[in-house]
Design a protein that fits this description.
single chain, alpha+beta, Heat Shock Protein 90, five-stranded mixed sheet, 17 helices
Length: 567
């Protein structure tokens, strides 16, 4: 974003010649004949000696004080007619009404080379508060921008939202541009390769600014016309990168007014605000400020040297946008928490439905048995063959079936009970809880089930949650077997320890998962079942990763699928 300002300042200050309204500069190769100093004339001229002359206009200088700053090969300076000081390896000369009207600097090299000389002037305020402390200014600026880059790059890897990536990359290339600007401010000559590198960083920073504007304002969905317009400028920046590679300098920003580029996201942001996007207001204000800032810099309305201006404006803009993105991130976290609460609620409802279905399945046989008992009572009454012994036998049978039904409810009640405290438990015990619920269903469906314990381990966590994960995976395996009508169905659980990690593997022979679905099955609401909720595997993954700090993996086997829980 600051790349445009960098270009402006670079070409108007870093290598300007006659921008001083009270000072004129001349160059001489023979120390006699002087001509007006122009960078394009001597920028590539090979010399062994030359003299620079400055003429001061005291009427225009009035009673003000400025300071002339010169970047050159100080070791080759053989003569000057004034006093100077060295600050940050730069020659500094005080300019006031008491100074010489003509100031000379004569240089002589041991061998011919490109004349290394560049000058600028600063006011008293800059001399007093910036020049001597510019190292601190640069350090703070780079620190703020680098932190913004690193922080939002991490946020991108967490959220996978492109707007954070674009903003992070924008900050990176802005930082590289500023470092290049600072580096060249201490050197009198800029080679074409270095120029190309800096121009590349600048163009990339502006390119990512436009991409960031598209992503944060969602122009593709909300403002298609603006989206296309921004795409045109994105294409121009890509072409400019190609031009830099060929010609070693940027062409685009020679012909396009720099502040116009920032009017594009500013206008897009204003339209977004008008359409009701209140979050776009901060970004719009930020872009507008930068736009005004660049315009003022272009027209020399800022009374501070370019290098200081850009090192103040760049981190300030970073802070403004970082606060805005931080607020946006806060909203995203809130929405995510609300979504997770909804998913947990839906998961509980789905679990209750599964629980009721399982209870109904397990109650079907004892209810049928109780029905037969009642039928026997009815027949016995009709035949008048009831005696105390027969009655006790039937009551005993009824009580056995009722006890089984009551025990079934207790098992499910304990299984879905919410644990508020972590407890020590063996993984095998929690796996057996899930098996106890599913075993009658497996028996009824003639599913060959096997649980093999190679090595058990004890952990501290919420015990019922591990059982719920195992139950979800067993239920999915059972559903797949029923759906695909697998002959000789098999489900197997293996508990073992590898590399100091406990691994529970659930395998089936239900044919596996389609390859295009393997990377999606743990996503919320993803399901291949006709009446599935798509939250079982998502919640299982959340439980294992959040509460057990583990991982859950899935891959297809030769005849089915394998889920492994690693903690």
């Amino acid at each position: 974003m600051k790349s445009i300002l960098f270009l402006i300042l670079f070409f108007t200050n870093l290598y300007s010649n006659n921008f001083g309204y009270f000072i004129k500069d001349y160059i001489s190769e023979d120390n006699i004949n002087f001509r007006e100093l122009k960078y394009e004339d001597y920028g590539n001229l090979i010399l062994d000696e030359f003299t620079i002359k400055f003429e001061l206009d005291f009427e225009k200088l009035e009673n003000k004080t400025y300071y002339l700053t010169i970047v050159s090969d100080k070791d080759s300076l053989i003569y000057t007619n004034i006093k100077y000081e060295i600050i940050n390896n730069i020659i500094v000369v005080k300019l006031d009404k008491f100074q010489e009207k003509e100031i000379f600097f004569k240089y002589k090299y041991d061998s011919k080379k490109i004349a290394q000389f560049r000058w600028n002037y600063i006011n008293s305020f800059e001399y007093k508060y910036f020049l001597k402390y510019e190292g601190i200014l640069y350090g703070v600026a780079y620190g703020i921008i680098f932190c913004a880059f690193l922080y939002y790059l991490i946020i991108f890897f967490s959220t996978r939202m492109k707007c954070f990536l674009y903003y992070s990359m924008m900050q990176l290339f802005v930082l590289l541009s500023l470092v290049g600007f600072m580096y060249f401010s201490y050197h009198s000559y800029l080679s074409s390769i270095y120029q190309a590198l800096v121009d590349t960083a600048e163009t990339l920073s502006f390119l990512f600014t436009l991409l960031f504007a598209q992503a944060i304002l969602k122009t593709k969905e909300k403002m298609p016309a603006i989206h296309i317009f921004i795409n045109i400028f994105i294409l121009l920046n890509i072409l400019d990168l190609i031009a830099i590679f060929i010609y070693k300098y940027s062409i685009l920003y020679i012909y396009i007014p720099f502040y116009i580029g920032f009017l594009i996201p500013t206008i897009a942001g204003a339209i977004a605000v008008i359409k009701g996007d209140k979050n776009a207001l901060v970004y719009t204000i930020g872009w507008l400020v930068v736009c005004i800032f660049i315009y003022a810099a272009e027209h020399y309305l800022i009374p501070i040297s370019g290098i200081y201006t850009v090192h103040i404006g760049a981190p300030l803009e970073s802070l403004i946008f970082s606060f805005a993105l931080g607020y946006m991130l806060k909203i995203l976290v809130k929405e995510k928490n609300e979504k997770e609460k909804l998913l947990i609620h839906q998961s509980k409802l789905a679990s209750m439905g599964e629980m009721i279905n399982n209870i109904a399945h397990q109650w079907r046989q004892p209810l049928t048995h109780l029905g037969f008992i009642n039928m026997n009572f009815q027949l016995a009454l009709e035949d008048k063959k009831i005696d105390i012994k027969y009655l006790n036998e039937k009551i005993k049978e009824s009580n056995f079936q009722l006890d089984f039904m009551s025990k079934t409810i207790d098992n499910f009640k304990d299984f879905y009970k919410v644990n508020k405290q972590k407890e020590n438990f063996y993984l095998s015990d929690e796996i057996y809880k899930a098996i106890e619920i599913m075993q009658p269903i497996f028996d009824n469906l003639n599913i060959n089930f096997e649980f093999k314990i190679k090595e058990d381990t004890q952990i501290t966590a919420y015990e019922n949650e591990y059982s719920q994960v195992i139950l979800n995976l067993l239920t999915n395996a059972k559903d797949a077997i029923i759906l695909r009508k697998i002959s000789n169905p098999q489900i197997k659980i293996i508990l073992e320890i590898k590399n100091n990690k406990s691994i529970t593997t659930i395998l089936d022979n239900a044919g596996g998962i389609e390859k295009e679905h393997l990377n999606s099955i743990f996503g919320p609401y993803f399901t291949t079942k006709e009446k599935g909720t798509g939250i079982g595997l998502y919640m299982s993954k959340m439980i294992i990763e959040s509460h057990f700090k583990g991982k859950i993996h899935v891959f297809n086997t030769e005849d089915g699928v394998s889920f492994s829980i690693e903690i």
